[in-house]
Queue: 2 jobs
Job 1
Amino acid sequence: MAVHETHAAPRTVTPEQLTPPWVVDHLRKRWMGIAGLATILSFALYLYYSGTFEGRQQFFRAYLVGYIFCFGLMLGSTALLMLQHVTGGKWGLVLRRQLEAGTRTLPIVVLLFIPIIFGMQYLYPWAGSMPLDIHGQHALNVRADYLNAKWFVGRAAIYFVIWGIFIYLLNKWSLKQDVLPESPEAYNDLRLRFMRLGGGGLVVYAVTVSLAAIDWVMTLDPVWYSTIWGMLYMAGQALSTMAFMLVVLTLLAKYEPMKSLLRKTELHDNGKLLLAFVMLYAYLSFSQFIIIWSGNLPEEITWYLARTQHGWKPVMLLLVVIHFVIPFLLLLNRDLKKNPTRLRNVAILILFARVGEIFWQVNPNFKETSGITGHFNPNIMDMVLPIALAAIWITAFFYQLKKRPLLPAYHHLVPEILEPSHGAH
Amino acid sequence: MASLLEQQNADPGVDDITQPGVSPPVIAPGYDFGQVTDKIGNVVLTKRTPWSWVIGFLIAFGIMNILMLAVGYLFIKGTGIWGINIPVGWGFAIINFVWWIGIGHAGTLISAILLLFKQSWRTSINRFAEAMTLFAVMCAGMFPLIHTGRPWLAAYWLLPYPNTMSLWPQFRSPLIWDVFAVSTYLTVSLLFWYTGLIPDVASLRDKAKNGFAKFFYGILSMGWRGSARHWHRYEYAYILLAGLSTPLVLSVHTVVSWDFAVSVIPGWHTTIFPPYFVAGAIYSGFAMVLTLAIPIREAYNMKDFITDRHLNNMAKVMLATGLIVGYGYMTEAFFGWFSANKYESFMILNRMTGPYAPTYWALIFCNIITPQFLWFKKVRSNVPILFIISLIVNVGMWLERFVIVITSLHRDFLPSSWGLYHPTVWDWATYVGTLGLFTTLLFLFIRVLPMISIFEVRALLPQSKVTVE
């Protein structure tokens, strides 16, 4: 660990001084209200629409969009947390407790998965009664042993158990950094354990998140496949999570204790990471597009055709602008990344773009029974359900955030954070 | 603009944490500024060329002459002397091109990305890693030129050169993007390397006794006087070049991967190729840096500057990128079945069980199984084993390109057009010859330029740690 020799006395802080501010509980109550209202409204809409197959399908489409977004926040938190344990660094330390709160929403995310099990037949061609052409039928015949209701639920359970083990350990060990370590050896031992857990965990994460993204989103299309899909989901989750955590971090920075703890350096570093994730996602997404576009094979290009025709083109172009162009250009600016309010505004825009991106991935898969193509035809549920799910998730997040001090007080980098920022270069 | 000095004083980030409380130093203790300059500078300024250098150089130069022979004969006879045929129209030339260009990526990653990430440990290895990049790109650049068989005509085929015959390259082909990507890469890498050299070359100019050396380094140092203004501009230029180089780490190998992926050949046309190629490039590049760093630090007694910590960190980067490459192989295998496309599944089965199966399994052994040992700190700190692993990974990454190119081409959609590819002695001579060219250039570099950045290492010494409040 890098210790500055010039320190007169090491600066320290106690866990009591790091108690989350009142605003966390206030926000939890606010979001609980929104979640309650939106959930009631969702139920009402379901009752209203459930008369027809399309109505029920519409409900579950909207539900899946919201679910994939919340799930991404939870699992993205886990991945970034493990990344931080592997690489170290102060950027992650200031986000650490927020990310941990994000991971502890796992039970809610598991509960929210249950409706998808019941709605499976409306969503996935392999589970349902949707008419399929010969290619779709062939693909599903080949994959029949893998893509079926029993295994879909079984695999989901396996993913959740695996993630649960990592999340449990990450949170359990983190508490040890809230008490004074017995000895430097014991502390380093803990750090090493974190590092190993993170390293191994990231490998397991990469495999499981790829399989989950294939199961839950890619198989909405009976034929289409793309080998980059897993990486696209890793980058997307990292982007959503970073944006969400920065919104919360800049909010907390208005109140003690973070008001005096969050320095421009760490804010700037995290802003740079946000920019990196914006670019990474755009890079992967564009790679997928250019390869499929130039190959122009019938089993692949149809995915993009469905997403650029029948009213979807403006949606796609809007996504290019709000998911990449605007955040990219704004985040290039150094001053913006150091300004909490402006950084938060960009992060909020990114969060909306993320929901939009998932919406654009999910919805063109569904063909109207009346016609053959999926028109861009948004329903009120497409707005209400993602809001309901996000609000439930955010409520759970703030509930968890309140439980622990905002920093692990005895982390070895805390003294460096307590040092004033070296000028605002 | 954060100053370089400040970045180097920042937290090293990836600490070695097995020794409680102390992180092993990036630079061994006990040096002052003058000793650093002498130790690195004397390798260049000494009058006595070590015998080991002369012998090594002669061997490398000899091997380079194999390349001269192979290319000379190629220009007389044409590409018929190679093993390429129909259906395998792309053979060693593209394999070696991709292999060499991939190796270059580690230099750029070390010099640019690790600088932006404030990883101060990069300082002792960036100079020769960048040199390695340049020489690797030169070796890579040879292949697109000579694979035409008539390189004096290649200007029409490779570059959009305005001519009365209205011959233009196909702008929608990634092959032409490649020409731009690689030449940009070479230019920016050269500028970056040279900019970093200027202060050091000026030190050599000031220390040199020999008149010719004074003159030579005097020209190269471009009037550097080390004034505050010079340093200010230098730092600005260096950070800007680092920013420019960073996208190149991704873009060059992404375009290389598109050379394959935009086609419709199973085994080439797959969306994971861009990130997977980039990771593979960095992976092979770090293997090559280790392959070079371990003997060099031994021969020139530079263990105090290229410490075990450097080797340890490089091994970690190798492990991480190796795992991404492994993820790529697993994805390919999974989708071979999941795609429900008989050509895709045949392609992957053919790789695993077809005529080239041994190369596939050798590649799995070299690239996936071998790096798993790097999880253990004992392996990462065992220099001979690390050296062997780096060699195995170098071989593995070459095999990977062989498997991708040959097994995808030799059996395509129509069984009637299937065939086999056997490299000829000229294929091997050209490949081995570029190894000679690469090593020759490296030997020359070590003899005439400081292989480690003198002034940046000085900034790492405890004496130069100042607090900026």
Job 2
Amino acid sequence: MRMLRQFAILLAREVESLFLSPLNYAVITIALFFNGWSFWYALQQYQGNVEGAVRFFFGQSPLVWLVIVLVPPLLTMRLFAEERRSGTLEMLLTAPVSEIEVVLAKFGAGLAFFCALWLPSLLYLAIVKSYGAIPDAGSLATSYLGIFLVGALFTAAGLFASSLTSTQILAAVLATVFNLLLLVVPLLSQMVQIEAIEKFFVELWIWRHFGDSFAKGLFDTAHVGFYVVLTGVILFWTVRSLESQRWR
Amino acid sequence: MKEHATFTRGRRLAIGLNVLFVSLLAPLVGGLLLYLLFRPELRRRFDLTSRATFTLSERTVKVLASLATRDEPIDIYTCFRPSYLSDSGVPVPGLEAV
């Protein structure tokens, strides 16, 4: 009970600092512009086929993936790096809270902000619905779940990068490179022409896990587990990285 | 009385090695979990599309069940679209050559 209360206090502190940061509103504005443009483009391309447009918007649109890849590092870059630079990380670590609570609170806040970024996309669907086109509710639900899970993975990666350095920009660059590697390496591995390497990287390809289930309207426990396990491993590394402050 | 440092270099090294070992162990445990999750016996799929687009119809299931009881060999013809992309636009490994 005490742990939960401490976690709630930490979470509220992090959420407040994220939602009060002007930089994050600049990020959200750019992301909304890209999302809106992408949805408009999808509707144009599919000439009124709402189902196809929605599937393109969530699963294939490069602009939407750009938002998914770039926004979490920008949101999380300051979470640990800024605390380390300003010297408040020592205070936080010497307070009667565990590293796990600190990491989970920062992760929860980052993910909450990422989810808030996607709320306006419900408006696009409401507009489309007002014209009489009804998108498939099941596909929509799995697409949002997919975006939530990818967002969680990238938020964890951003948090881990932020725990490694005291420079915000370096943290953002590290996390972006990691996210891009998860997207691009499987494509590059096909050039190697070695089946085992190709297979290994294709298994790790987050776009494939997204496109093969969530974007289609399928809820697949294996694909959900893939994102949850990867996020868990990265969060575990973040806790270890934070713990290392005590003995380094 | 002489004081002895408890947080020695050796101790720091031991903690560091422990952290390194545990950090390397985590992806291995994750890999094992993923292996289990992708096993067909544990994997569950739910088609949430309103028209059950990715679910076999009852008739198809009946046809497939009847095939299992046949003794003579069955010829199977598969048709591929001239694309190695899946419905969601993701390349399917192994179909590039088709």
